[in-house]
Design brief:
Blueprint (H helix, E strand, L loop, with lengths): L10 H7 L3 H20 L13 H10 L2 H14 L3 H28 L25 H16 L4 H20 L5 H20 L8 H5 L2
């Protein structure tokens, strides 16, 4: 009688023995993501398939880094003598700062480690940069791309170059082994959506007179 009235398994053991369809699907997608990202990391090291292109990929990496964009925007803001240009640059600075904060918060919450084949030789990192989800470069590339296309008057070839730059920066993150594909895809979506927030909170002499008084 004692064997017939055995205590039921704990709930977590039942979940392990009977995984849900969603759990199986997520695990499969994660495995595919890791496998594909490693196969595409062709510039992850000097001995990789495309190791000779690694220096070029690192130049592209710097072009999408937050520090050059922040410094360039701030310098342009200080030197601008046009009120319209100052308004655009001030909002670009606001967008870049918002991007840095949001990506850092998400990385700190998710805490997904970078791919094992990544070499930690990135340009200027902080503590949360040891995590990979989402890709800050991809987020920034999508955000800046939408911002530039919306607020700068550019010829069609230049507009195409801006879009290509955003795509190349994003793809280079996987090629360098810095990120998995899902890190980059989510980063692009986040940056695209973040621009809408910037537009909604657009800073102008009417909405933020104190900020414009500084310039």
């Amino acid at each position: 009688s004692s064997s017939s009235t055995a205590a039921p398994l704990p709930e977590e053991d039942c979940m392990k023995l009977n995984p849900s369809f969603l759990g199986i699907a997520l695990s499969s997608l994660l495995a595919i993501d890791l496998w594909a990202s490693k196969r595409l990391g062709v510039c992850a090291g000097e001995n990789s398939a495309w190791g000779s292109a690694r220096p070029l990929m690192k130049v592209i990496e710097v072009s999408g880094h937050g520090i050059p964009w922040l410094l360039g925007t701030f310098c342009g803001l200080c030197q601008s003598d046009s009120s319209a240009a100052r308004e655009v640059l001030l909002n670009l600075l606001f967008a870049l700062l918002l991007d840095l904060v949001l990506v850092a918060v998400v990385k700190g919450l998710v805490k997904r480690r970078r791919p094992t084949h990544n070499k930690m030789d990135m340009f200027v990192t902080i503590s949360v940069d040891k995590y990979s989800f989402p890709s800050g470069h991809a987020t920034r590339a999508a955000l800046v791309c939408r911002f530039v296309l919306r607020h700068l008057v550019l010829a069609v070839p230049l507009r195409v170059l801006v879009v290509l730059w955003a795509l190349i920066v994003s793809v280079s993150r996987v090629m360098l082994g810095r990120h998995n594909m899902t890190d980059v895809l989510f980063g692009l979506l986040l940056g695209y959506a973040l621009y809408s927030v910037v537009e909604y909170c657009w800073l102008s002499p009417l909405s933020a007179p104190a900020l414009f008084a500084l310039w």
